[in-house]
Amino acid sequence: MATHTQQLTRSHTVRLRGLTRSFEGRTVLDGIDLDLPAGQFTALLGHSGSGKSTLLRAIAGLDHGVAGSGRLTAPDRVSVVFQDSRLLPWRRVLDNVLLGTDGREAAEKGRSALAEVGLAGRERAWPNELSGGEAQRAALARSLVREPELLLADEPFGALDALTRIRMHVLLRELWERHRPSVLLVTHDVDEAIVLADRVLVLDHGRIGLDLAIDRPHPRSYRDPLLGEYRDRLLNALGVTEDVTGPAEASERGGTAAHPAAEPDRATAQPAAGPGGTANDVAAGPDGTAVGVAGHDVSAHRKEKHP
Amino acid sequence: MTTRTTTTTRNAASDTPSTAITDEAAPTPASTSVSVTDSIPTSPTDADAGTGTGTGTAADTSTGTGPAAAPAPPAPVATEADGAEAVETKADSRRFRRSPRPRRRGLAPGKRLPASRLIGPALFLALWAVASAAGQLDPGAIPAPWTVLRTTGHLWTDGTLPTDVLTSLERAGYGFGFGLTAGVVLALASGLSRVGEALIDGTVQLNRAIPTLGLIPLFILWLGIGETFKIAIIAIVVYIPIYLNLHSALSGIDHRYVELAEVQGLSRLRFVREIVIPGALPGFFVGLRLGVTASWLSLVVLEQINATSGLGYMMFQAQNYGRTDIILVGLLIYGIFGLVSDSAVRLIERKVLSWRRTLSS
After folding, report:
1. ipTM
2. What average pLDDT score do residues A109-134 get?
3. Domain B145-352 maps to which CATH number in 1.10.3720.10, 4.10.640.10, 3.90.1280.10, 2.60.40.1180?
4. In this predicted structure, what is the pLDDT of residue A224?
5. In the list A296, B25, B215, B302, which could disulfide-bond B9, CB 3.0-4.6 Å?
């Protein structure tokens, strides 16, 4: 099969038409039509292996040699935040942030980007002196310096602990509000998607299975009962139901298994978290984002990921 | 450990040669006889006071190792538990004095001793001096350190040593310089382009399979017996480890960094300069250190086979006259050169790769 030809053209919005990608004859993306308007915060959910990352890499133009077809337009300035911070260990933090930029002006921008993510004063540190959360902040700063029109984030908080994750959620949303790039956040965490994004897509068998606008004001709380409805719809689209544990289909698909396991946990955790456990108080962000449920969710995921 | 077991055995076994603690210790105890009753009364209290696991293991070992100790089984159990208990309380009290919580010792080797690299050689030198002074060494075979020093002084003042040292340094320097350049250029060409790899890598692997010293006869015929062939041989010996390590470091660049460079819009030149080469430096230094050592090694061989000057030649001549002291002078100088050049490379490596936090830092 021939690799996809150069279908990438430039525009401020992302536009996909009939985008298809396949690996060794297995179709991963099956004719996706999608528009991401400028400045929209979109989350992309899906099971592991559903093609989330493939879609993100296609938009980022990183999928050389992958077979496929379709039309794709994307903005000029695209930044990608990976799951690992991907800082070069031999460059100091500021030099990492400035990777691919030139000049004095860029250096100033780099400094202010580091200050924005709360790393002012760490410019001369080596990457291996940073904690996981700090490294990911530096990676965010690196993506900001390029003043992206589109920010692609591939499970950027997947490797962080629950508390750091919450802080990073707040930070990402703040940065988005200040700079207004289009954001496509790939995640497997339903709650993360609901709390952060204004639009959530569910990728299912290589197609967009659900396209859900989340019309709730920010900052959002995990305890917002209205968000619960969104969550139910999303979980439904992911093939997970609240009361039925372990449908045959779920175990078949591997990644789905995380969710049925997580659900009973959440059901028990929610009332418990309500009456103000200490974990809640400690972790609540400045905007009152509740943590109890999210923490539970995260740990449930962890359990499934590393059995 | 062994001492403790033996004492236990002596206490416990009064008349029976076989004991419950260890089979090896069994034959010894016959000499001393201590009444069994001595240890029995203390045993229950001690065992009770001790931790459950301690007594448990003691009992296990006693039954396991010495099933023949039927006559006095409680005694060894008691004493073993006793000993274990005593050791444990001692350790505990020591730990408690240091810090309220017992802290596990780290697995890193810990702080480096001051001038640690010199301690071994200094000790060796001291042993050599003492043995010579005591007349334990045949001065014809291994002359004393001071004899070697005196000979060094003579050779230096009469001018032969400086000439020989300079000649050797020049050979090693040229050989190393050419080898380094060739290794780096070839590794870059082969590590950064597929065409280069196709042309170079197989050829170098082939070259590597041929023992370089086996090329000496051929090179003498091609290049004559002068300096050129010596430098060529040293260069070949040096370039191979440098090429191999640098090439594998260049081609082993993490794919994630390649992606990053694409995302950040780096040009090919900047990608090579800012990611590939800095990332390959650790591998390069491994090759460099091997190359430096290799240059000295080949120098010794070359100068002892085909030379009319140089340290190797000096040593070869000394062998004809039975002057072991001169041979030792040569060896010493080779050793010092090797040590100094290796330390220099290490120093550069530490400066250049300061971002690496390893066990040695």
Report:
1. 0.74
2. 91
3. 1.10.3720.10
4. 79
5. B25
Distance from CA of A64 to the nearest CA of B (A): 11
Give the contacts of B219 (CB within 8 A, at least 6 positions apart).
B229, B232, B233
User: β-strand A78-81 against A67-74: which pairing, if any?
Assistant: unpaired
Residue A294, min C-alpha distance to chain B (Å): 30
**Chain length of chain A:** 307
**Which of the residue ranges A118-122, B1-5, B250-254 would you say has the lowest mean pLDDT?**
B1-5
CB-neighbour burial class of residue A282 (10 A; exposed 0-12, middle 13-18, buried 19+): exposed
Q: How many domains in chain A?
A: 1
Residues of B in contact with A146 (CB under 8 A): 264-265
Per residue in A101-118, pLDDT (tens digit) is 888 888 999 999 999 999
Residues of the domain holding A212: 8-77+148-305
Q: What would the pLDDT profile of B215-245 be if each residue is shown by its tens digit? A: 989 999 999 888 899 999 999 999 999 999 9
Spatial contact of A289 and A227, defined as CB atoms under 8 Å apart:
no
How is B205-244 classified by DSSP, letter by letter?
HHHHHS-GGGGHHHHHHHH-SSHHHHHHHHHHHHHHHHHH
- Which residue in chain A is spatially nearest to B276 when comparing CA positions? A88
Is the pTM for the entire model greater than 0.80?
Answer: no
